[in-house]
Amino acid sequence: MYDVIIxxxxxxxxxxxxxxxxxxLKTLIIEKEKAGGxxxxxxxxxxxxxxxxxxxxxxxxxxxxxQADEFGVERVIDNIxxxxxxxxxxxxxxxxxxxxxxxxxxxxxxxxxxxxxxGEEEFTGKGxxxxxxxxxxxxxxxxxxxxxxxxxxxxxxxxxxxxARKVTIIHRRDELRAVKSIQEKAFKNEKIDFMWDSVxxxxxxxxxxGSMIVENTKTGEQxxxxxxxxxxxxxxxxxxxxxPATDIFKGQVDMEGGYIPTDDEMRTNLDGVFAAGxxxxxxxxxxxxxxxxxxxxxxxxEKYISEVFDD
Length: 311
Description:
By secondary structure, the protein is an alpha/beta fold. The chain is 23% helix and 28% strand. Strands 1, 2, 3, 4, 5, 6 and 17 form a seven-stranded mixed sheet that branches. A five-stranded parallel sheet has the order 8-15-9-10-11. The protein has a three-stranded antiparallel sheet with strand order 12-13-14, with no helix packed on it. Helix 1 runs parallel beside helix 2 and helix 1 (11-22) runs parallel beside helix 6. The model has no long low-confidence stretch (mean pLDDT 94).
């Protein structure tokens, strides 16, 4: 019997584990693959406080894991297949084992929806990005392309004009889906261009993104977009939505579009169940906000346990 089970070992889960174990709670973190979540694909982390000395996603994750381990967090690799979170004692079933706890913190994250074309995975972190705030500065004075036409895509395109020489929005339709006020800002921005009725079919390059194949959705015509010779590369930022990793909790934890709503204390609709990080309903999905969520969730889990189990 654990005091706290944390599902997910991204920054939110690791932060929750650190705070929970530091409070002398018997803590288990369950992760299906490897610690770090999305941050492990980031080559440089410039916007997390204290991440200097050329910190990368993997090195920052390594420090977080080491810190959690030093406070006595137990960690296992297991794929969760079933949960029962409604009872006082929470049951989490994995492919390898069954685990029980007094409280559960859901920190399973969300993953950007990929285009799903050849070369995309290969060049992620090498020209392909899913986070303008994380990676925009790396493309200072270069050309970048933004895939998508919704609010997030257009807002991020506008943001990227702070760094890039030119930003081209690639959209599969002939008009944007973003709200009119955001569209108007984009249309007025001299740095933003548009590639209508177009989809990316393939991403190519040597080491970094050097070209891409784009197809016209109406004519089927394909063309290759090449990097400027002087630049040697360009950026592709993908904003076509996120996929929260929350399916296993449906029917028990309340959700909004797959995301888990919480109060300011990270409490879900179920007693003793908390959510932290990108799987939660929120406006900013960054490492720094995930770690804050994790800390709050762990502190509230400790209070819950002391009120419900220690009487």
